[in-house]
C-alpha cells in the first residue's frame, strides 16, 4: 500500500496486508486518527491525511519528524 492522497483503505484490507488482527488494526488506527495522521473516508475506510504526504516520496512529514515508508531500506 502506497500512501497516496485520497486513497482509502478499509480496516480489513489493512489487516490482511500486514497479516494482523482486525482488532489490533482498529486500535492502532484509532490512535493514528486521534493524533491527526489518518482520517475516515466515505464508507469508513481510513486514509492518510493528504497534507502530510511528501510529494514524490514514500514519506510523511509530521513537522517534527519525517517518516519514510520505504520497504527494505
Write the layout of secondary structure elements.
Blueprint (H helix, E strand, L loop, with lengths): L10 H7 L4 H13 L3 E3 L5 E3 L10 E3 L4 E3 L5
Antiparallel strand pairs: 1-2, 3-4
Helix pairs in contact: 1-2
Structural overview:
The protein has 73 residues and is an alpha+beta fold. It has one domain (11-68). Helix content is 27%, strand content 16%. It has 2 helices and 4 strands, in the order ααββββ. The chain has helices at residues 11-17, 22-34; strands at 38-40, 46-48, 59-61, 66-68. The strands form 2 sheets. The chain has a two-stranded antiparallel ribbon with strand order 1-2. Strands 3-4 form a two-stranded antiparallel ribbon. A hairpin with a 4-residue loop joins strand 3 (59-61) and strand 4. Helix 1 packs across helix 2 (22-34). The protein is globular. It starts with 10 loop residues before the first helix and ends in a 5-residue tail after the last strand. The model has no long low-confidence stretch (mean pLDDT 83).
Largest sheet: 2 strands, antiparallel
What is the strand arrangement across the widest sheet? 1-2
User: DSSP strand (E) fraction?
Assistant: 15-25%
* Count of domains: 1
Spatial extent as radius of gyration: 12 Å
Report the strand count.
4
Estimate the global geometry from the Cα principal axes: globular
Give the proportion of residues in helices.
25-40%
- Oligomerization category of the chains in this entry: single chain
Order of helices and strands: HHEEEE
Assign the structural class, choosing from mainly alpha, mainly beta, alpha/beta, alpha+beta, or little secondary structure. alpha+beta
- The helix count comes to 2
- Low-pLDDT runs of 5+ residues are none
Q: Determine the mean pLDDT.
A: 83
Our measurement of the CA-to-CA distance between the termini, rounded to an integer number of angstroms, reads 16 Å
